[in-house]
């Protein structure tokens, strides 16, 4: 997995975009007390379910890999 230069900022952008996507779709309502890790996992699984992004092999799914995948997605959106 190649490190992205501004991955932290892209992960924050991905969380914002993912929360908006999930709420517009009616799939979830996020609370301010939800942790970033919970949001990352939910958004990743929702985008995989909707076939917006390619899924990782289940043995490679971790917080680091999900964050990386969402950062790539955020860099391509808008």
Could you describe the 3D structure shown?
- This protein has 3 helices and no strands.
- The chain has 78 residues and is mainly alpha-helical.
- The chain has a single domain, classed as Up-down Bundle (Four Helix Bundle (Hemerythrin (Met), subunit A)).
- The longest helix has 19 residues, at 7-25.
Radius of gyration: 12 Å
Return the CATH architecture. Answer: Up-down Bundle
Which percent range fits the helix content? 55-70%
**N-to-C series of helices and strands:** HHH
Q: Can you summarize the main beta sheet? A: none
Secondary structure layout:
Layout: H1 7-25, H2 36-49, H3 63-76
Helix pairs in contact: 1-2, 1-3, 2-3
Protein name: DUF5062 domain-containing protein
Pfam family, one: DUF5062
InterPro entries: DUF5062, DUF5062_sf
Summarize the structure.
The chain is mostly helical. The chain has one domain: Uncharacterised protein PF16691 family (Four Helix Bundle (Hemerythrin (Met), subunit A), Up-down Bundle), CATH 1.20.120.1930. Helix content is 60%, strand content 0%.
């Amino acid at each position: 997995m190649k490190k992205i230069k501004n991955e932290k900022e892209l992960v924050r952008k991905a969380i914002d975009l993912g929360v908006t996507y999930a709420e517009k779709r009616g799939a979830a309502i996020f609370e301010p007390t939800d942790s970033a890790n919970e949001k990352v996992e939910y958004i990743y699984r929702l985008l995989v379910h909707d076939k917006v992004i390619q899924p990782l092999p289940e043995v490679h799914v971790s917080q680091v890999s999900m964050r990386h995948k969402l950062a790539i997605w955020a860099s391509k959106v808008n």
